[in-house]
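Bumping my old thread because nobody answered last time. Still need a sequence for this structure:
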């Protein structure tokens, strides 16, 4: 029963973090580039998914499930620390005026 409670709490944390990361580009970047930044974020998530599958397979072939679960458990705290290091204060980025004209 305790394991189920811990897994439920961890899943809740993953979902909260995922939702916050999906809205982060709209909070930081100007509206003209939010779609591009979100697209790059989606690409990074997809590439991470592909690479993580290969890493998990390699870990299972050579070791056991222990390093896989340790890695899974450490990803949220690591991502939080990286986010706080890269973006210490969330403020909108000012867009520079461009001289591009669309005809």
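Sorry it took so long. Here it is:
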């Amino acid at each position: 029963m305790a394991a189920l409670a811990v897994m439920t709490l961890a899943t809740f944390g993953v979902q909260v973090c995922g939702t916050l990361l999906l809205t982060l580009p709209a909070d930081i970047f100007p509206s003209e580039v939010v779609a591009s930044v979100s697209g790059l974020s989606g690409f990074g998530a997809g590439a991470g998914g592909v690479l993580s599958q290969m890493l998990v397979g390699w870990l299972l072939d050579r070791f056991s499930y222990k390093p896989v679960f340790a890695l899974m458990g450490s990803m949220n705290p690591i991502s939080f620390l990286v986010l706080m290091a890269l973006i210490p204060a969330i403020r909108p980025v000012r867009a520079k005026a461009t001289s591009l004209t669309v005809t």
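Residues 25-86 form one domain. Let me know if any region looks off to you.
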